[in-house]
Prior knowledge:
The structure holds 3 protein chains of 3 kinds.
Chain A: E1 5-12, H1 23-38, E2 47-51, H2 55-58, H3 63-67, E3 78-81, H4 87-100, E4 106-114, H5 122-125, H6 142-157, H7 161-174, H8 189-194, E5 197-200, E6 202-203, E7 212-221, H9 222-228, E8 233-242, H10 256-269, H11 274-277, E9 280-282, H12 288-297, H13 306-311, H14 328-332, H15 336-352, E10 366-373, E11 378-385
Parallel strand pairs in A: 2-3, 2-4, 9-10
Antiparallel strand pairs in A: 1-7, 1-8, 4-7, 5-6, 8-11, 10-11
Helix pairs in contact in A: 4-15, 7-12
Chain B: H1 18-22, H2 42-53, E1 57-61, E2 68-69, E3 75-76, E4 81-82, E5 85-89, E6 92-98, E7 100-103, E8 109-114, E9 116-121, E10 129-133, E11 147-152, E12 165-170
Antiparallel strand pairs in B: 1-2, 1-5, 3-4, 6-9, 6-11, 7-8, 9-10, 11-12
Chain C: E1 5-12, H1 24-39, E2 49-53, H2 56-59, E3 79-82, H3 86-98, E4 104-112, H4 119-124, H5 140-153, H6 158-172, H7 186-190, E5 194-196, E6 199-200, E7 209-218, H8 219-222, E8 230-239, H9 253-266, H10 271-274, E9 277-279, H11 285-294, H12 300-308, H13 325-329, H14 336-349, E10 362-368, E11 375-382
Amino acid sequence: MGRRVAIVGAGMTKFVRRAQETGKELAFYAVREALNYCGMKLNQIDGVVLGSAPDTFDGVHMKGEYLSDGAGAWGKPYMRCLVGGGTGVFAVAHGWYHVASGVFNTCLVVCEEKMSSFQPHAQAAFLTIFDHTTERPLKPNLLWIFALEMNRYMSTYGIRKEEIALVAVKNKNNALDHPAAQLTAPVTVEDILKSEVLAWPVQRLDVSPVSDGAVALVLAEESIARRVTDKPVWIEGVGWSLDTAYWTNRDLCYPRYVEEAARMAYKMAGITDPRHQIHVAEPYDPFDYKELHHMEGLMLCGRGEAPQLTVDGVTRRDGELPVCPSGGLLGVGNPIAAAGLMKVAELFYQLRGEAGKRQIARKAKRGVAQAWGDLMQVGTVVVAGI
Amino acid sequence: MKRLKESMPVLPGTGLKDEDFQKGRVLFTRWKADAKYKWDAGIAIGRYLAGLKQGKILGVKCYKCERIMVPPRIFCEWCFRNIDEWVVLKDTGRVNTFSLCYVTWDVKRIKEPQIPAVIEIDGASPGMGIMHLLGEVDPKKVQVGMRVKAVWKPVEQREGAITDIMYFKPI
Amino acid sequence: MKKRVAVVGIGVTQFRSITPDVSYKEMVYEAAVKAYQEAGVDPRRDVDTFVSCSEDYHEGTSIFDEYVPDQLGAALKQVQTIAGEGLHGVVAACLQIMTGEFKVAVVETHSKASNMLTPDGIAVCAQDPVFNRPLGLNNLFIAGLEMNRFLYKYKLSKAHCSRVVQKNRCYALNNPIAGRGALLTDEDFATARMVAEPLDQLDFAQPVDGALVVVLAAEDVVGRLKGKPVWIEGMGWCNGAVSLESRDWDTLDYVTKAGDMAYRMADVKNPIEEFSFAEIDDTYSYKELQHLLALRLVTAGELGDSLLAGQFGLNGKLPVNTSGGALGMGYLHEATGLARLYWAVKQLRGEAGKNQLLNPRKAVVQSWRGLPTTSAVVLVLSS
């Protein structure tokens, strides 16, 4: 696997609907928090990788370059990765191979998103993710792809909205204990089922709030990691997979690309029985049904079985396999790339026992974080252990 | 309603509200990007669009995996080899999934929903769908598995675009 | 570099000012098929990781990453997009191979510059939205400012820049894939229209369409693949000051840092002596000179005279941009650096045709991300 690489520090900004800070400033804050967390200085960082979703939101072309100084990369080797919504978790893999290759001893992983710049609403920017010739003339809406996938998932396995709504209830509640969460409030299943229908079966409270925010992690090779902290969190496996762009040729009921990515990461981490060898999971939950969809892709349960685990309380913080103890995107907010990295940061805090009120009941030695994106195409997975 | 967060760290970042902008408490700049493109359709999609103008949905076949694919492409992405044959497909199909959407792409609310769907086209391999809209149908009656047929624009209005099909309606 | 990586296959399409007959997918497919043929790999089985380099605003599609896998044979495989220059992609692929987890990697970039109807309007979107864009200036002003300062500081003149343009565009005529080869006369230079003084219309590269795919392999598997290996001995990359207001206008620290990092890895102690040729960025004519200095390939005192004496020509001490450079091949946006790598590989393999150098051993290849960035990548290659 190359050298052992650990996460030694994490930091983030609040996730707010609309930040006063520019993208650069958000990135700066997150980096500063992460370095402070582990007592390291920028001149001890060999390289920087940044993840940020499409440039259209900010209206800045080559956004990676614009953000590079805020991310601490002046005078340093710097690279930006972009795999849509999967970026937040992929950025960790990106940083991982910088260090595991032997070329860098330390690396900063920064993810930033400023979705509020796009007027009238970030959602409109998503028109441009569709195929310019075969799809855009139909004026598609971001909500379509989620609704089409949610409907397919529900009809294939006979899953009801009441079961799916439990995920949003759990996560929004969990997020009350997350310092980055700004607008979360507890909800009930009734609230969700009564909320405005946006694109049936998607209703307003099924959707995570669009946000601005940034997160940063500090990675280090083993000997430095052990000097910096007595609880390094090891990156034990990374995986990613991108399915064909012809999404209308695929069955959307199952995210096979998440399974491919998970297999790659589990193989590296030596995991053969994910359901029992993973103790905490942070799958990507931009919509409530996605948490279930991804739990199945991560092979934490069989296909169509995730709702039952939720109903049975297995995925609560005090359950056997806590899922999204952070509160996820539904609860904390969804600044796309930063949200994915927030999940890896949550593994970092949980495995070290530093998650405060969010700390899960059982002892966790291994966790998995996963992000998703593009046209229901990419799965990115990181397995962390202590 | 929020629980007190006394014991939680205070993270950096400042949230703004709409009225901060309306009341001029925050300064900002505006930019409308001058970003226009014309994309080369290329061989496969070029032919697909020409087919649409003639009122036909075209697909392609790979002899190795024997899939018949739509939208057409010059290579089979699974076998990574050139496709072997062009096929005229039917303009009927089956709804694989659908949604009832009450919000437009630019975030306006509408009363009558748009009905996007993935429609598996007859004549192509199972599961081979294209994205389009459903029309002439009661939103409450749409179901996964429903059989539908393309409703075409009159010949003289067709441009060689996916919108030459106005929508698919139930049959 | 402890774990060496080799280029074992490289495929390109003809660089043309327009390519209306093919979509970007079809263009990349052609380059991919050629690259895989050369390397002797089947992407469905033999490739462990794919890297694509693209920028959404150039494509006119957000999350362009979505559309990458199929034409590379990478559907449902490990694919990542680096929003960077093609050589950033090569670096990313090398790093992955050096972890030991991946043996064969593929890097892809392409340009469909002709599909941008408002290229200047798009380019302007890279300027800082608060401090720079409200001035309403075309990006080229940045090159004008830098060229002015650079020529002043190093006591060079427009004549030196014109020499670069003439050399590169002439070499491109012998490069079968180049799109902008030409024999320029004194009259052409004299009548060239000023664009952003002192930058005139001949001083910058014109866009072309084209696609490139490279196959890279770890040292221990090179033997069982078909392609003739060209080794990557060292790599370096670096970013500089982002804001126009706080950057150095004559010297390129970030290029020097990137170069030094690559030289250290490749154990190059004396860059002036050790390279058989250089393929460095010349998107703007003065840039070739600025990069020569920053990469320590010539001293400031000798730069002007060496150029005029033909030391950077085909028969000179250090042939520079015998490919024709971006000036001669055309500007390919994210794919520009990969086009230089392509040519360097051809030279080192002895396949460069009319512009073939005698027994080239070691080369330096450098790219820059273009205006308004300060981001560069440097590779050291050997045959």
